[in-house]
Amino acid sequence: MATAQSASAAEVKVLTAGAFKQVVLAVVPEFEKSGHKVVVDNDTVGGLTKRIEGGEAFDVAVLTPAAIDELVRKGKIADGSKTPLARVGVGVMVKAGAPAPDISTVEAFKRALLNAKSVAYIDPASGGSSGIYVDKLLDRLGVAAEIKPKAKLKQGGYVADLIKSGEAEFGIHQISEIVPVKEVTLVGPLPAEIQNYTTYAAGISANAKERDAAKALIAVFSGPVAAAVFREKGMDKP
Q: What does pTM read for this prediction?
């Protein structure tokens, strides 16, 4: 925070993907005590990548490391600015009060999928990392033909919205996107053999207007205040 306080007050625009939005929103008030202002915009990794490639102005982007690397290669994110922040696994949810299915093994998870009346996850076409993984996982488990006709796809945001509204019975999303929603219950993480972690990293725009403030904000994202939020949100260090 000392770095942030030493800089003149600035407005920092942050483009953040998926599950990391909750961390950004939780940490920003602490950062803003320095006098800086943060503007947060959220989208899928794919959506933000396209926007940045299209020339959208920003100061800090929080994406997957691979997306950051690609944008560095294209001259959109400053070389050397990539900072690994956190990772999060994929979990299963049901509506609060509903019976929790057994997902303790891969075979149990498959049975739970097949027994569910409807299954919700992020639409892979939207570029969301968890949706892309789930789509491939269904093929890998040999249940895609049975699940896709009853799939309820979310274009972005919380898959939990479809569970709490009753539109879907069984939801799959990143754990940090499940934990904050009181109307749903986290059944647990995917079995270890099929677990998938999404890692988030920050990068500074190659054309950042507020480079010093952006560096200070990333320092907060990778510091002790954020580490406490990671634990609360079901994330850990990569």
A: 0.74
